[in-house]
């Protein structure tokens, strides 16, 4: 391993970030030392990513930072763009969000690591390749140098990004939502890897909305809300006895702390599958699965990524054909009343159309009444004013509640919620889940919840089906 | 690889039959007496034209019912026999060799020129979207693409041959005759490929992997060279396949304007003279070139983009 360039302290004092319309991050002060990782918690839009960008020097040009960010005494805010760029990869490394998108899709992983040695550390080509192999071996990817990013799992991509940080030898790691989109198992492994980085003497600044990541990393925790640091202290203190009500809300939103509230089935089977099997290429996702969903219950399907949970739900909806087995939907019910809730709310709405327009068209198409929409808005606690915004202009949690509203307009008997809350911050997740539970209780909707979050499944589902990842 | 080639061969076969049939049908439904046109093409329009036309009709079997003519033609095609030109009497394949060769030179020169102009303008535009270079590129692209090839050809001829007197206005023989027709085609091609490149570059420049390459500490030139160009080339190369269509359309018009003895020129003459075997042979050659170009583009795309290789 390249010995990291020793950095003794990153200190931020009175950092504010302004847009043209006013401050969006106010008066942040914190410090980071070897052996003491810092984790910033908060929902999207709380400004935690902006703090990381200010350290990195990648704030969008329309934003300006004031205050002081010192890396071993050198002020980063007053650096010129060239000086900032000089630090990238050498002093500060960024572990990107969703590294499977941050690695070049057309280049093998080995050269992507080797080029850091070659072009940043100015080594000869053969030397660079050899060093890259060492870096990959350090993160357990010694065998993977010839793979392309699309052939690797999310966890492997994240480890490749760490290998790249090792190659540069930088002393400060900024991990921006390093576990976004990963299941619990992979998340724990990435967190363990990050702790090793801390033990190796690197400074670690982690941005996340996942409390379990903060808990596992330990060190110092800061909680951000609307651009302010509302809580700051040791992990034990902030995560057990927070001083700010928002931090408390954040802790309460962690599914592990929820009171169980699984609904009881209120009716007969609405949908069932017998002997379902599905293969992709030569790879059997699952075989001989019997499953049924009754009215008024939440049936959870849990398991690691790639085990076929989503495919199972799509088979039940009739979106994918099973290789074997049959699906039976309750007789005499329109196909339209079997609905799906998607994982990524922004991807489930047309980006350039105000929400009102889409809902209005839907009501018109199915000869409904606009009053139904208004009644649902109230029931799902959505403000009327949001209707005239574009999907990108409202929060993920609000958008997912609009997706529920859209499905409810068709009076569904069955809803397939495909990781419907996994991209939301905990507080939004709690709101969406609460709304869903209410709807299930009131309408007798049968829900198939696909999730990788065991705690969530445990708290709200009537029954749980576990799928395992099968090896070829 | 073998599956790829076999699929392309099958595709070529289907194209051959479809193109041949379409030509056959279209030539039959054109108004006017084919025998009369052929006779006029051979002997010139004189007083004995009706007599000559009757001879032609019998000689070429044009008085046979059309299904017989069609099956005969199809049978010949299966034996790789394209027949003889009804007008000159020479084997179609010989005529094609000469004309196709000339056209391929023209098309290759046009493509090369367009590749020198289009992607270069596109890269400059795409690296700074909405900068002055981008706006200028857009204006130029819209203007050039809005001009039909024959207007553009005439303008170039006017400027470079008539006013400046630098280049010959028409003809065939040396590279000097090749410049104006190929530039006419190239400007039309570059007008669009520059915009496609611009979009590709702008998309790549916004991609997370492009930002990450910078955050790794790589110098800007290395970021563009190693992570920008290859990724941006993927849509541009697939677009080249579509440009082949424009080239065929353009070759027909441009060769006629510049009196350039290529396959497009030949096609126009063959249609006027109702030289059915020539029309069929020419169209067939163009169709097969299409298949070859598409196969080449697909192979190049697979080389550029490893994700496609796995999909195959």
From TrEMBL, chain A:
Topology term for the membrane: Peripheral membrane protein
InterPro entries in the record: AAA+_ATPase, ABC_Ni/Peptide_Import, ABC_transporter-like_ATP-bd, ABC_transporter-like_CS, P-loop_NTPase
Keyword Lipid biosynthesis set for record: no
Keywords recorded for this protein, A-Z: ATP-binding, Cell membrane, Membrane, Nucleotide-binding, Transport
Major location category of this protein: membrane
SMART domains to which the protein is assigned, alphabetical: AAA (SM00382)
UniProt-listed SUPFAM superfamilies: P-loop containing nucleoside triphosphate hydrolases
Gene3D superfamilies per record: P-loop containing nucleotide triphosphate hydrolases
Coiled coil: none
ABC transporter domain sequence ranges: 5-251, 271-468
Family stated for the protein in its record: Belongs to the ABC transporter superfamily.
Protein name stated in the entry: ATP-binding cassette domain-containing protein
Protein source organism: Chelativorans salis
Taxon lineage: Bacteria, Pseudomonadati, Pseudomonadota, Alphaproteobacteria, Hyphomicrobiales
UniProtKB/TrEMBL annotation, chain B:
Pfam assignment, any one: BPD_transp_1
CDD domains documented for this protein: TM_PBP2
Membrane topology: Multi-pass membrane protein
UniProt protein name: ABC transporter permease
Keywords linked to the UniProt accession: Cell membrane, Membrane, Transmembrane, Transmembrane helix, Transport
Record domain ABC transmembrane type-1: where: 100-301
Major location category of this protein: membrane
Entry's transmembrane regions: 12-30, 104-125, 146-166, 178-196, 236-263, 283-304
Family: Belongs to the binding-protein-dependent transport system permease family.
Record-linked InterPro entries: BPD_transp_1_N, MetI-like, MetI-like_sf
Domain of life: Bacteria
The keyword Amino-acid biosynthesis is assigned to this record: no
Record localization: Cell membrane
């Amino acid at each position: 391993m390249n010995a990291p360039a020793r950095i003794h302290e990153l200190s931020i004092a009175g950092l504010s970030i302004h847009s043209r319309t006013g401050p969006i991050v106010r008066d942040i002060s914190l410090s980071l030392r070897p052996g003491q990782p810092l984790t910033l918690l908060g929902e999207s839009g709380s400004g935690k990513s902006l703090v990381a960008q200010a350290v990195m020097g990648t704030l969008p040009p329309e934003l300006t930072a004031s205050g002081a960010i010192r890396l071993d005494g050198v002020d980063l805010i007053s650096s010129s763009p060239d000086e900032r760029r000089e630090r990238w990869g050498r002093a500060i490394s960024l572990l990107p969000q969703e590294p499977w998108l941050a690695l070049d899709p057309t280049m093998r992983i080995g050269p992507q690591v080797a080029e850091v040695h070659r072009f940043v550390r100015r080594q000869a080509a053969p030397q660079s390749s050899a060093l890259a192999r060492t870096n990959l071996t350090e993160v357990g990817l010694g065998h993977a140098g010839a793979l392309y990013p699309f052939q690797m799992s999310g966890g492997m991509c994240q480890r490749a990004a760490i290998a790249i940080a090792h190659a540069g030898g930088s002393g400060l790691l900024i991990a921006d939502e390093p576990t976004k989109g990963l299941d619990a198992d992979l998340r724990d492994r990435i967190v363990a890897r990050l702790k090793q980085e801390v033990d190796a003497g690197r400074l670690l600044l982690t941005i996340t909305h996942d409390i379990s990541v903060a808990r596992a990393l330990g060190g110092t925790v800061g909680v951000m809300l609307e651009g302010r640091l509302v809580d700051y202290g040791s992990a034990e203190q902030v995560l057990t006895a927070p001083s700010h009500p928002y931090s408390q809300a954040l802790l309460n939103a962690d599914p592990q702390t929820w009171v169980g509230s699984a609904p009881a089935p209120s009716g007969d089977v609405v949908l069932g599958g017998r002997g379902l099997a599905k293969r992709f290429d030569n790879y059997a996702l699952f075989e001989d699965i019997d499953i049924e969903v009754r009215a008024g219950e939440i049936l959870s399907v849990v398991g690691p990524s790639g085990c076929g949970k989503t495919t199972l739900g799509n088979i039940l909806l009739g979106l994918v054909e099973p290789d074997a087995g049959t699906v039976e939907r309750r007789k005499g019910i329109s196909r339209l009343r079997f609905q799906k809730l998607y994982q990524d709310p922004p991807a489930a709405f047309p980006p350039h159309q105000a929400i009102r327009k889409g809902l209005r068209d839907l009501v018109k198409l199915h000869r409904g009444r606009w009053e139904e929409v208004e009644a649902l808005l109230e029931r799902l606690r959505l403000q009327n004013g949001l209707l005239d915004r574009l999907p990108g202009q409202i929060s993920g949690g609000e958008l997912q509640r609009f997706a529920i509203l859209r499905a409810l307009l068709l009076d569904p008997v069955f809803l397939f919620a495909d990781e419907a809350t996994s991209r939301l911050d905990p507080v939004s997740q709690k709101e969406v889940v609460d709304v869903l539970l209410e709807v299930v209780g009131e309408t007798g909707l049968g829900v198939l919840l696909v999730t990788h979050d065991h705690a969530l499944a445990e708290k709200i589902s009537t029954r749980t089906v576990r799928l395992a990842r099968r090896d070829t | 690889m073998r599956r790829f080639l076999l699929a392309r061969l099958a595709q070529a076969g289907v194209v051959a039959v479809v193109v041949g049939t379409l030509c056959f049908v279209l030539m039959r439904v054109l108004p006017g007496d084919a025998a009369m046109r052929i006779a006029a093409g051979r002997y010139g329009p004189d007083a004995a034209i009706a007599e000559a036309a009757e001879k032609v009709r019998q000689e070429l079997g044009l008085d046979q019912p059309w299904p017989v003519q069609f099956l005969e033609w199809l049978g010949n095609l299966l034996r790789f026999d394209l027949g003889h030109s009804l007008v000159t009497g020479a084997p179609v394949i010989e005529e094609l060799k000469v004309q196709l060769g000339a056209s391929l030179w023209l098309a290759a020169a046009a493509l090369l020129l367009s590749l020198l102009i289009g992607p270069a303008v596109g890269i400059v535009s795409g690296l700074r979207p909405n900068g002055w270079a981008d706006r200028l590129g857009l204006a130029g692209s819209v203007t050039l693409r809005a001009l039909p090839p024959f207007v553009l050809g005439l303008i170039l001829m006017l400027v470079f041959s008539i006013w400046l007197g630098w280049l010959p206005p028409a003809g065939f023989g040396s590279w000097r005759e090749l410049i104006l027709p190929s530039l006419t085609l190239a400007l039309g091609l570059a007008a669009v490929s520059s915009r496609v490149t611009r979009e590709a570059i702008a998309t790549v420049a916004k991609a997370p992997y492009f930002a990450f390459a910078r955050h790794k500490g790589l110098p800007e030139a290395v970021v563009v060279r190693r992570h920008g160009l290859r990724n941006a080339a993927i849509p541009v190369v697939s677009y080249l396949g579509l440009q082949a269509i424009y080239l065929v359309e353009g070759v027909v018009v441009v060769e006629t304007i510049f009196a350039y003895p290529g396959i497009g020129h030949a096609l126009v003459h063959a249609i006027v003279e109702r030289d059915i075997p020539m029309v069929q042979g020419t169209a067939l050659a163009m169709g097969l070139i299409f298949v070859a170009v598409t196969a080449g583009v697909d192979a190049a795309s697979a080389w550029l983009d490893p994700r496609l290789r796995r999909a195959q």
